[in-house]
Amino acid sequence: MKKRQLGHSDLHISEISLGCMNLGTNVKQATNIIDTALDQGINYLDTADLYDFGENERILGQAIKGKRDQVMIATKGGNHFEPGKEGWYWDPSKAYLKEAFKNSLLRLGLDYIDLYQLHGGTIEDPTDEVIETFEELQQEGLIRYYGISSIRPNVIKRFVERSNITSVMMQYSLLDRRPEEEVLNLLNDNHIGVVVRGALGKGMLTSIGQTQWQKKGQKGFLNYDSAELKSIITSLQDLANDHNLSPQSLAIGYALKHRAISSLVLGASTPEQVLDNVRAYQDAQISDNVYNQLKPLTKANIYEQHRD
Length: 308
Known about the structure:
Blueprint: E1 3-5, E2 12-14, E3 16-19, H1 27-39, E4 44-46, H2 55-63, E5 72-77, E6 79-80, E7 89-90, H3 94-108, E8 113-119, H4 127-139, E9 143-149, H5 153-162, E10 167-171, H6 183-189, E11 193-197, H7 209-216, H8 226-242, H9 247-257, E12 261-267, H10 271-282, H11 288-294
């Protein structure tokens, strides 16, 4: 498993990492998934306090006991929820972020977190207050680095201009090429690492793409309608067959090709899915020629909102 530097930090994380959102609440099953990931050389685990309202962090913390030196842990905060109450709301205030971080640290059972991320963000947020909060946590040695999880160009640009963020987590794939317009180059130029979610396009960019299209593509995706998605899935499978690769390998290879990318966060709900992702990754070092064959399959779509 190759590793890449996360932005300007001294963290070197595996090119594919484990997204923990779909681990579930069965401790044994979740632990098996995490153990499988670690055994395969994955060293970066991404969670959030909102996942199962804290239970995900708690299970992750139990699973990595005695293995802290093998992993880098990223979590997120900013969605305000309270135990026993339904729902949550966005709250990027300093007071709540400090409280949320403290609770995350307790649930994970850790002395520090490698990367703490704002779980969203809007242009109306008190950005300087958020940055001040993260800087204080860093100065106290409670976090090593901080970043944001956002697809909004205006929010990303503000943090690039005002903060010392290490990373941005965003959606990026063959189907969602919006970051290519300007965001990926902006972050690369500022030595900020990109952690990708959604690289497999809700499973539509895998060997079971047609099945996933039936489940998740009937209403379209971004600016693609259902028929366009089906055509893309078919073309991707044909190209994969031409190169004796899986569609999943091509999708992973495409997303990893841009030099701004540090890691692809791939979720898994079974150990077998982890192994499937790793097998696809092992064949994903695609050539420039293959990369250039992939690009015409999809649109160079752009962000239509949150630009200014």
